[in-house]
Amino acid sequence: MTELTPHAAHWGAFIAEVADGRLVGTRPFPGDPAPPALLSAIPDAVHAPTRIDRPHVRRGWLNGDRRGGTPRGGEPFVPLDWDTAIRLVAGEVARVRDTHGPASLFGGSYGWSSAGRFHHARTQLQRLLAAAGGFTGQLTNYSYAAGMTLMPHVVGGNAVIEGPVVEWRDIVGHARLMLCFGGILLRNGQITAGGAGRHEMGGWLARAAAAGVRLVNISPVRGDMPDSAGAEWLPIRPGTDTALMLGMTHVLFTEGLADLGFLDRCAVGADRLRAYVLGETDGVAKSPAWAAAETGIPAERIAALARDCAAQPTMLTAAWSLQRAERGEQPFWMLVTLAASLGQIGRRGCGFGFGHASMNGMGTPRTEIPSVGLPGLPNPAQSWIPVARLTEMLERPGGAYDYNGRHLAYPDARLVWWAGGNPFHHHQDLNRLLRAWARLETVVVSEPWWNSLARHADIVLPATTSLERDDIGSAGRDRFILAMKRALPRHAQARDEFDYMADVADALGVRDRFTQQRDAATWLRVIYGRARDAASRLGIDLPDFDAFWRAGSVEVPPPAQGSVPFADFVRAPHAAPLNTPSGRIELFSRTIADFGYDDCPGHPVWFAPREYLGAKLAARFPLHLLSSQPATRLHSQLDQARVSQASKLHGREPIRLHPADAEARGLKAGDVVRVFNDRGACLAGVVPDDGLLRGVAVISTGAWLDPERPGVPGSLCVHGNVNVLTQDVGTSRLGQGPSAQSCLVEVVRWDGALPEVTVHRPPEIAA
Ligand SMILES: Nc1nc2c(c(=O)[nH]1)N[C@H]1C(S)=C(S)[C@@H](COP(=O)(O)OP(=O)(O)OC[C@H]3O[C@@H](n4cnc5c(=O)[nH]c(N)nc54)[C@H](O)[C@@H]3O)O[C@H]1N2
Ligand SMILES: Nc1nc2c(c(=O)[nH]1)N[C@H]1C(S)=C(S)[C@@H](COP(=O)(O)OP(=O)(O)OC[C@H]3O[C@@H](n4cnc5c(=O)[nH]c(N)nc54)[C@H](O)[C@@H]3O)O[C@H]1N2
Ligand SMILES: [Mo]
């Protein structure tokens, strides 16, 4: 008999089909117009051979090997019972805290965890470490660190990225032209952090096309917008969007098309910006001809596009990827600047936005209600690093660095505990991370799977998957609250984070502070109840917990008409000022100028990146490698399952190459190649794609790191983890975000024997 249980993941709500204690399938959530293909992959992952069955410890660590000993990743693991594991972990946490101070416990634990908001591994871990005296955390995120640090200076809040965005309903109804920097990606629309009840991105894009909105895909990749949208493709060299927008702004200023009235009323710094654009400050006019040389887009097309934008209701949107690059602040600042020069900000369906391409729910009609979430506990250590400065923190304990106007020093991290994230997926330049990782005394990892992170740990704690526990899914961009009911028995000896962390808290003498004397079932009622109370204060009635749980989901209907970002401000800039020092949009920021950063001055500027097709380094590494989000999984999650596996060539992650670039290297479809630069190398399988700009290559993120010689930094990844190639450098001293997209490589055919991909099997377990 098959039991049907409502559940949810980041890739969507679904109905779990369970027979004999095993997940045998998934059914789409009723009413979801576009359930993602990824739902079919869940059973493979939940029952994968890489599930961790009990706690383990690295053999060398057990024998007293700590900092600088045998490199992690190359040694067998020894099974432990839970009591011993808890004693070891609590002992290490107490020892490091008492010897070096709580900031030496690194619990930043960046990562997506599961969609469930109570059993959210990262939040649980941080509650535990906070209760035990504190830890070093991580600020911002890998998604849009540069953007979210910059935007408060420019428009007075990262509301642009995290609050309301220009709604699709309004784009369909009011915009006539939409420029999509980085396209609109249906593959990315499969995902919502916290789970989605309905996948709507594709539907909205189709409606915009049907309504006659002229869509322009400005991207190195034609496929960044589906053919069905009928978009024009404007191929651009990666990392040069700022130059394109400067060239367009030049046209607006020189042809009398800039909205000087809007700039005067609603912005500050237009004069300085104009002087820079016209070349009065640096002798270089940012003309369309100048921009053409950087972007590869003909000058006439740049000029025509600027005129078209000025002539009709226009929406500008940029994918978050644009700012995950060297000087990633600039394209986002420049997008706001271009939109301000067009003077359409605050009009329905027009202006600018970020991330319509990036995730389901960006621009979906929605009533703003608080989502369900587990609150953190105050962190007594008050210590953090900008999220992507992980390796540098390990390399330079006590070292000075700048961030957003502050002079800071790195903490001396001795113990890392990661739960719900995977730095061996998300971080750049993994060989450098591996070397720095050797400086740690102890690495604790909580994971359901023997992934690359668990293999580089000292103590491994087996976590349940969300299907093995009751939880609530809830996303800041969705209209649904989703019951995630337990559908499966716990795998082997895997435990819920809340349960074993309560035992660690007990060993540290802080159980009640961690649990607040509630069990998991009570917590679910409490966090749901808080969201319900908050909704009721906004005049929205949600059912009580029992009714919600019985129904399996709650939908909050959207308002008849959405709000328009910046409308109040634009109507009356003095009465409704922005939260910037001037109260207006800052095209020049005195605050930022006073930071004195040469890598992020007081107004948007063009910086030629160190790694892009126009760089000197391109003579040695002539291909610009983009590491885009995978259609076949979420980051490293589900890599072991059928959708991802079906995409591999000879078991390797695909690399897409322009046919002419492939031919020039004697490569054909299905060949295995070695992709390399000075930082590292991996294998990948060739997929020729004439929808790429020449000179551009793409490997999706998320193939599990599989070093040919485990434990040896610099060894070939035989599987295709793109982060052995990317560079680990902050976007600038302002945002310190990751710069993964600025990456040059070369590719050669691999003629040797093919090393086996072994990472989807468990590692060696010692007796
Ligand atoms: N080169 C390159 N790198 C990138 C990017 C890029 O564009 N290019 N993008 C970046 C971006 S935007 C992001 S957000 C990051 C994503 O980076 P991450 O969020 O770190 O990636 P995930 O693979 O989602 O990691 C989540 C981990 O949590 C584990 N997990 C799931 N459920 C549970 C649970 O209940 N308990 C525990 N203990 N663990 C659980 C999963 O097995 C997985 O290992 O990657 C970044 N890295
Ligand atoms: N299926 C799936 N969906 C996902 C995720 C996933 O792992 N899997 N991850 C989710 C997460 S955490 C995030 S943060 C978002 C990220 O969302 P995004 O950052 O928007 O996603 P990416 O795929 O990294 O980049 C989008 C496109 O930008 C283009 N691009 C890259 N560099 C440039 C450039 O310099 N200029 C221009 N014009 N275009 C460029 C690439 O061709 C790429 O296809 O995606 C989310 N959605
Ligand atoms: Mo992200």
Strand order of the largest sheet: 5-4-19-18-17-6
Kindly identify the CATH topology of the domain at 165-365 and 565-595: Dimethylsulfoxide Reductase, domain 2
The number of helical runs is 26
State the share of residues found in helices, binned by percent: 25-40%
Mean pLDDT: 97
What is the strand tally? 29
Q: Can you list the ligands bound to this structure?
A: ligand MGD, molybdenum atom
Task: Please mark out the parts with pLDDT under 50 across 5 or more consecutive residues, or reply none.
Answer: none
CATH architecture of the domain at 165-365 and 565-595: 3-Layer(aba) Sandwich
| CA-based gyration radius | 25 Å
Q: Would you kindly provide a written description of the structure presented here, covering whatever features stand out?
A:
The structure is a single chain. With 767 residues, the chain is α/β, with parallel strands linked by helices. The chain is built from 26 helices and 29 strands. A 6-stranded mixed beta sheet has the order 5-4-19-18-17-6. Strands 24-28-25-27-26-29 form a 6-stranded mixed barrel. Strands 10-9-8-12-13 form a 5-stranded parallel beta sheet, with helices on one face. The radius of gyration is 25 Å and the shape is globular. The two termini are 39 Å apart. 59% of the residues are buried. One ligand MGD binds at residues 143, 181-183, 185, 187-188, 190-191, 218-221, 224, 236, 238-239, 241, 319-322, 325, 357-359, 626, 628-631, 634-635, 741.
Summarize the structure in short.
By secondary structure, the protein is of the alpha/beta class. Residues 111-114, 119, 121, 142-143, 324, 419-422, 425-426, 428, 446-449, 451, 463, 466, 497, 627, 634-637, 701, 722-723, 726, 740 line the site of one ligand MGD.
